Give the backbone structure.
Amino acid sequence: MQDLAVEKPPSWYRTVFLVAIFSAMSLALSWLIAPFIASTVALLLGMGWSGETPPALLALDMALSLLAFILGCYGAARLSRGHFLFAAAGVALVGWVVYFAEAGGVQGMLKSQYPIWYEFFPSHFSAALLAIYLVRRRKAP
């Protein structure tokens, strides 16, 4: 007779699916919603600008994008049923690769209109580390 309390091992297909779904969600939040919220807040605070983007707006955009990737990494890790390291790292890696390609690689990042602190801030890596910490903390007794 089979023990009903024994769970099946975690599925890699499920984990890869979660990485794809949460990566798409994080990218959409980071690229569409975060800049909209940041620019709306900037306009409400009277930070009109012409030409160069204000550092406060960039910092708010970065914080919202980081939050989007923390949610994505955490969601994928939490639902992966065992492959939480791969799930969180996968979402972060997809986000970083897409950003790196969109920015034009290191040369594009160095010649960007944005400051160097904005371009090279390790938001994807930080999001994965925080999500892994939160999942492990939740599992600990």
Q: What stands out?
A: The mean pLDDT is 89. The helical segments are 12-44, 55-79, 84-103, 105-110, 116-119, 123-139.
